[in-house]
Amino acid sequence: MGSSPAVEIRGLRKEYGDTVAVDGLDLVVPRGATYALLGPNGSGKTTTIRTLLRIQEPDAGEVRVLGEKPGPGVRDRIGYLPEERGLYPRMKVREVLTFLAELKGMAPRDSRPRIDGWLDRVDLSERADDRVQTLSKGMQQKLQFVAAVVHEPELVILDEPFSGLDPINQQALREIVAEIRRSERTILFSTHIIEHAERLCDHVCILSHGRAVVEGEVGRVKREHGGRHVGLTLDPWTPEAVAAVRAAPEVARVHQDGHAIELSLADGADPRALLARLVQGGVGLIRFEVVEPSLHQVFIERVGSRPIEEGALV
Ligand code: ATP
Q1: Which of 20, 38, 47, 52 most suits a substitution to test ligand 1, by most atoms within 8 Å of the C-beta?
Q2: What is residue 2's predicted lDDT score, i.e. its pLDDT?
Q3: Residue 21 Cβ < 6 Å to ligand 1
Q4: Mean pLDDT for each consecutive 10-residue tract of the chain (314 residues)?
Q5: Quick one: pLDDT at residue 191?
Q6: Enclosing H/E stretch for 268
């Protein structure tokens, strides 16, 4: 049992009327992985996650969670942050956490020190005796995150955990996720923001229209998409030099981040031909290297559109 994957999904399908939300999805989350379900709005992330909690029954396919069928048998071993937040608004912060921990089998005398530790960690200690409804949206989200992890579940499932948090709290949450990762527990989180997946996950499933277009270990995913990406830095940086890069026939797409440029090569294009063209064209280069693609580039290549706020595509 211990050697079974944390999550295994085979041929999952879920329809709502005429909408196919999940369309034959296969994925495996190994034990100890930090796994990102990455996809644009409506790609099927929440539907997939809900089948793991048995909030929704699939129309077809097999789902295993911690080696078992989803259901009451595994529920206490999972921590879940749902996409739609909502805790008992009239209960007090510490009270609601104590209550939820008790539902997961923890006696109040055991949960109390952990709850206080977590409240301190997410900067909510001073609000411990306030009612939930008096907290801001972001604070309520942090509280609900604590509710998902306080019983130290083997598998933590977070549906869009970063949405609604300011940059400082996003960073704090990333650090907490990294800590949970070091404790060798399994984390599955959904996001439409590539940067969060890029910084955190070691495994990824890129979803598009309910299908996995990419699935597996991040290093392998990048290697499989490698050889077709070039990183370069211009010096001097001029609009003419950028225009020359963009106009080169070897270049399919350009992603610019400040003065650094990452580009995807056109099918069959040779990076040496591009280098020669730029040098002959008088473009000043202080860096030109064939690089592993970022998840961003893999995403753009496989999903084909710009899904996110971060990162400027030019
Ligand atoms: P988001 O990033 O916007 O949360 P998502 O990737 O989580 O999106 P889902 O919520 O799984 O996507 O939705 C997938 C598709 O299924 C969408 O087309 C959505 O409209 C549809 N859908 C989801 N839930 C329902 C429902 N209860 N009834 C009808 N259609 C639904």
Answers
A1: 47
A2: 54
A3: yes
A4: 85 94 96 95 94 92 94 88 85 94 90 94 94 92 92 94 90 91 93 89 94 93 83 90 94 83 88 94 92 85 60 31
A5: 94
A6: none
CA 14 to chain centre: 21
Q: Global pTM?
A: 0.83
Give the pLDDT of residue 241. Answer: 92
Cβ count near 271 (within 10 Å): 17
Mutate to test the pocket of ligand 1, among 46, 207, 208 (most ligand atoms within 8 A of CB): 46
Which CATH architecture does the domain made up of 7-222 adopt?
A: 3-Layer(aba) Sandwich (3.40)
| Helical H segments across the chain, by residue range | 45-52, 72-75, 93-103, 108-121, 137-149, 167-182, 194-200, 218-224, 239-247, 271-280, 295-303
> What distance in angstroms lies between residue 209's CA and the mean position of ligand 1's atoms?
10
Cα 20 to ligand 1 centre (Å) = 9
Question: What is the domain partition of the chain in residue ranges?
Answer: 7-222, 227-291
Fold of 227-291: Alpha-Beta Plaits (3.30.70)
**1 Cα–ligand 1 center, Å:** 32
CA of 133 to the centre of ligand 1 (A): 27
